[in-house]
Amino acid sequence: MGKSSDLHGNAPDKSEVALLLIDVINDLEFEGGEELLRNALPAARNIVDLKVRAREANVPVIYANDNFGRWRSDFNKTIEHCLRDRVRGQPIAEILRPGDDDYFVLKPKHSGFFSTTLDLLLEYLGARTLVLTGIAGNNCVLFTANDAYMRDYKLIIPADCLASIKQMDNDNALKQMQEVLKADIRLSIEVDFARLRSGEQMRAARS
């Protein structure tokens, strides 16, 4: 029996390009959270602009979010907590709250791929190029990028769309992702989703 064209009718998008938002719905209630908030707010504003342009180009948007050890929680409860409980991460959650058309996976550890449905979702979407954004750049973004690279995804990681507690750590992570994982770290304003998708359409026409 062949594979169905979507996830039981719930994943209609088809795109070789996908935008991932990693751990942006986060209460930041931990040591270093204040510094991370300060660094992450500019990144969040760049991410929301990137997200708008992605959806305009029919590029699927996926939230890969930590479950923070709350095994009985769901993503909606995490969103509600970050929006209503006067937590440190509320401003970022307000900027980047998910829309009805966005996808999400909950992850128990650093990587968006480890023990999640992300592999399956990306397979059904047909994604081969991932645009990675989020927090922290030297932690969960880096771990997700490592796993994506080992799965032969092409990586675009806009330098102005991730943040870490310390800027030096963020810069070092970006350097590693560029040099070791062959990531394109162009600025978000230079990410042209329509052009990326036109390349996809040209390949489809030749096949």
CATH architecture assignment name? 3-Layer(aba) Sandwich
Poorly predicted residue ranges: 1-9
Shape field: globular
Q: Helical amount among residues, as a percent range?
A: 40-55%
> Number of domains in the coordinates?
1
- The third-level CATH topology is Rossmann fold
Number of distinct beta strands? 6
- The first-to-last residue Cα distance is 23 Å
Per CATH, the class reads: Alpha Beta
- Structural class call reads alpha/beta
Largest sheet: 6 strands, parallel
Find the CATH superfamily: Isochorismatase-like
Q: Radius of gyration from the CA trace?
A: 16 Å
The averaged pLDDT comes out at 88
What pattern of helices and strands is seen along the backbone? EHEHHEHEHEEHH
The fraction of residues assigned to DSSP E strands is: 5-15%
Number of helices: 7
Structure description:
Helix content is 43%, strand content 14%. It is α/β, with parallel strands linked by helices and 207 residues long. Strand 1, helix 1 and strand 2 (61-66) form a beta-alpha-beta unit. Mean pLDDT is 88; it is low at 1-9.
